[in-house]
Amino acid sequence: MLEAPNFSAALRGLSVARLFAAGLLLGIGALLAVWGALPHPFPPFALCLAGAGAASGAFLVLQPTVSNLRRFAWLQLILDAALVTAIVAVTGGPQSIFAFLYVLVVTAACVVLARLGGLVIAGLSSLLYTGLVLGRTAFPLSRLMEPTETTALEIMTIFLNTAAFLVVAILAGSLAERYPALHRALEDQRKDLSDLRAFKDLIFESVGSGLVGMDLGCRITTLNRAAEEITGYESGEVAGHLWESVFGDGIPPNEIERAMRVEGWQVRRHEIRLRRKDGREVPLGISFWPIRSGGGELAGIIGVFQDLSSIKQMEERMRQADRLATIGRLAANIAHEIRNPLASLSGAIEVLSRELPRGDHDRLVQIVLRESDRLNHIVKEFLEYARPAPLHPLAVNVGEVLDEVLLLLEHRSLPADLKVRRDYDGSVSALLDPQQFRQAIWNLCINAVEAMPEGGELRIGAGIVTQRNVSRLEVWIADTGSGIDPESLPHIFEPFFSTKPGGSGIGLAQVHRVIQDHGGDVEVRSVPGAGTTVTLRLPLAKAAHRA
Q: Beta strand 298-307 with 281-292: parallel, antiparallel or unpaired?
């Protein structure tokens, strides 16, 4: 049984089909009448068709106002059977070529009213047709059909047509009843297929690793979103291109072909250098997997790859950290051994300077003492870096610590055009070692001021930043000074590396060590000639946040 929206649409379709058929038959009849080939009078035929067209128009107009559409459908189909009977009567009765119209009416009844409606209309059509044929003898229609005796052939025609009407009603009714169920099943299958395709596309596009699909000829068919970001190419831009044209020849073709024959998890991982669309090279780790159809046949290849830049950088940092740790332990022992003789030398020089008479050697003695103090200061800083004091974290107000550092900074001799801008308030708290954190901020502020000998703007800010439900403390120190050149930027946290004349290279190394001891990290962004911004990111303890 059709649902209400479908039932209303079926009725509208029935009216439109009736109107179209009436117009078509009327046109054909008019042409045959003009050519003199119409075997029956044209005016009654045209009158019946005009009545069918008028009824169709009336049904289309009245349908939106009808409350009971099913009764309205019965009325239309009964009237259709009557109109077909009239057309058959005026076109020769048993000899009419338009008896097939009963079949159309029965089929329409099956579509609209299912099998029961089709059987009822088929029975009504059979009665009307039988009455039309048999009624010629008892009730002849003057001027339309001559009164004649009903022949055995006509009686057989009645039985054949009646049987045809019933068979059509049964078959069309069965199809009409099965159609909604099949339609719903098809819609469910289509929806499931659409959901499965959307799910597949969602997984394919949401995977964090790059995915590249290839056919059996190693031609690229698609890239997912991660692959587009890594390579710099869009999927449609490289579709149909050979693998080598995008990913280079770092992997021999026979290796990719060998991946097609791999069974299970015996997949080899390759590392290559990819030249992105923008010309930058990135290291990739990639593996190939065969794609098989439902029947187990090989359908293509999929490559799964990741950008190894961060991993390579981490590995380099680990190697550097191991190397620096070894050098640091050795240097700390050497520095400790140097410190004692240095103190003895300084003491001996001071005693000699008091006992020797005044003369030209006084200036040399002062140089020795000054350089001894400078060397002792460097050794002290290095020992503090190499053998840091244990952390004593407290819930401190970050704004108060920054205010203390800026207060000490203002008592130094600063450039006249230096402006200090505060981008923080007193509401930010964190769990920190106040002494070591203050020393780290002081080192950064001194570096920023020394980078602006002619003045500029020193901006210090702090705030809590939340990303992926994780809150962290961020403190940034920015200057508008000379900046750091790209070649020196990767080495600024190494001990004894300095771009300033007379710099010890320990200050930034201490900053990096202090922030790492707190479980944070340091980010430096610098543009030569435009300034430097150092951002400290520290974990925010819940206790400190409540404080």
A: antiparallel
Q: What is the mean pLDDT of residues 219-226?
A: 87
Torsion of CA 179, 181, 183, 184, to 10 degrees: 160
Q: What is the CATH number of domain 208-307?
A: 3.30.450.20
Q: What's the CA gap between 10 and 8, in Å, rounded? A: 5
Q: Are 492 and 484 in contact (CB under 8 A)?
A: yes
Residues facing residue 538 across a β-bridge = 473
With beta carbons less than 8 A apart as the criterion, state whether 511 and 492 touch.
no
How far is Cα of residue 176 from the mean position of the Cα atoms in its chain? 43
Over its C-alpha atoms, the chain yields an Rg (Å, rounded) of 48
**Global pTM value:** 0.40
Of residues 59, 127, 50, 116, the one with CA closest to residue 83: 50
Report the candidate in 145, 147, 144 with the shortest Cα–Cα distance to residue 44: 144
CA dist 423 and 95 (Å) reads 102
Identify the pLDDT of residue 543.
40
Question: The tokens of 319 are what?
Answer: 């190697």
Nearest 5°: phi and psi at 356? -75, 145
Asked if residues 437 and 518 have their Cβ atoms less than 8 Å apart, the reply is yes
Higher pLDDT, 265 or 241: 241
Give me the half-sphere count of Cα atoms (radius 13 Å) on the Cβ side of residue 383: 13
The one-letter amino acid code at 84 reads V
Q: Is the pLDDT of residue 189 over 70?
A: yes
Q: Which two tokens stand for residue 163?
A: 């049987």
Query: Where residue 533 falls among pLDDT bands split at 50, 70, 90?
Result: very high
Mean pLDDT estimate for the chain: 78
pLDDT band at 478 (very low <50, low <70, confident <90, very high): very high
Domain ranges of the chain: 4-186, 208-307, 314-386, 394-546
Q: How far is CA 493 from CA 185, 228, 517, in A?
A: 67, 34, 14
Q: Going by DSSP bridges, is the β-strand pair 456-467/418-423 parallel, antiparallel, or unpaired?
A: parallel
Task: Name the CATH topology of 394-546.
Answer: Heat Shock Protein 90 (3.30.565)
